[in-house]
Amino acid sequence: MASSSLAAAEVAMRSGDGVEGVEEMTLTVRWSGKEYTVRVCGDDSVAELKRRICEVTNVLPKRQKLLYPKISAKLSDDSVLLSQLNLKPSVKMTMIGTVEDDIIVDQADSPEIVDDFELGHDEVIDIKDKFVNKQKLLRRISQHKIKLLNPCREGKKLLVLDIDYTLFDHKSPAENPRELMRPYLHEFLSAVYAEYDIMIWSATSMKWVELKMGQLGVLNNPNYKITALLDHMAMITVQSDSHGLFDCKPLGLIWAQFPEFYNAKNTIMFDDLRRNFVMNPQNGLTIRPFRKAHLNRSSDQELLRLTQYLLAIADLPDLSQLDHNYWELYAEDSTKRRRHR
Predict the structure, then answer these.
(1) β-strand pairing of 236-240 with 244-248
(2) Where is the Ubiquitin-like domain (predicted)?
(3) pTM recorded for the entire structure
């Protein structure tokens, strides 16, 4: 079931308690000779507005230039909140941008991934418990429906995986994308599929996710099935005191849409960016980034060792009670116990 904190936030939203300054507005955006309507809130950022525009136009946020009388310059700053702008539903916004019909396989043209940063424990608690962020999550739950590629399986835990630098070195050049695949990827997915449903969640576009997973042979492997793919449209934008606005991947979106299968107790998420699971820190495991594939693919055993960890914890009733920062010690202890049986 969805968490009690989200349920409380939903009740407050319905009653009107604590929602001052986050009223919804409908904006009209002109692009390529057509007009589109998008719904946003005052506490949304320009980045979120671009995400909403992307939903209806398929123009990626990084390709968008927004024009609006007197404030066009401010719309170039993704961190600006819409409540700080004098946007009027009666005034139409213009968007200039191009749809990426073909994504070039050359990794130099792949989406940019910003380096990670550390957030203090108190700051993480503040972000995940902040009412405005719970509101954003509830809106995302209502707006974004996850499309299943394969049915959820009764009694299985859930593994959510990032792509770039987690399963794939997205920046090194290569003639064949499989040269950049993290070692033991298919062995890893095949082994953990026995105990876990698998979802792939990337901070890039769905077209990029489908392309990369298809090129790596993940979507049609006979030994495992991918339950669903999620992209940047499923993320929400939150704000920290130390690092400003950034996007994250709230697992509550999945739990709310499939409450009979997944929850905080049976879900674990791998990502090389710790900030991506700021809304659910107890469910995140920070994987070592896989970079410079040509130099490191002969020595990288991260997925092999993580296979041991996932299988070792598969029978536990509550994964959120584990400190995944110490996963290597847990995996080693589990291996030693098996050897002495």
Answers:
(1) antiparallel
(2) 25-96
(3) 0.78
Residues 294 and 174 placed together within one structural domain of the fold = yes
Structure confidence by residue, pLDDT tens digits, 274-329: 889 999 999 999 999 999 999 999 999 999 999 999 999 999 999 999 999 999 99
Q: How far is CA 209 from CA 97, 140, 162, 281, in A?
A: 21, 20, 10, 24
* Residues 162 and 310 occupy one common structural domain: yes
Euclidean distance between CA atoms 306 and 339, whole angstroms: 18
The answer to whether residues 265 and 160 belong to one domain is yes
- CATH number for the domain spanning 311: value is 3.40.50.1000
My answer on whether 85 and 124 are in the same domain is: no
Reported as a single tens digit per residue, the pLDDT across 113-145 is 445 545 556 666 678 888 888 988 998 999 899
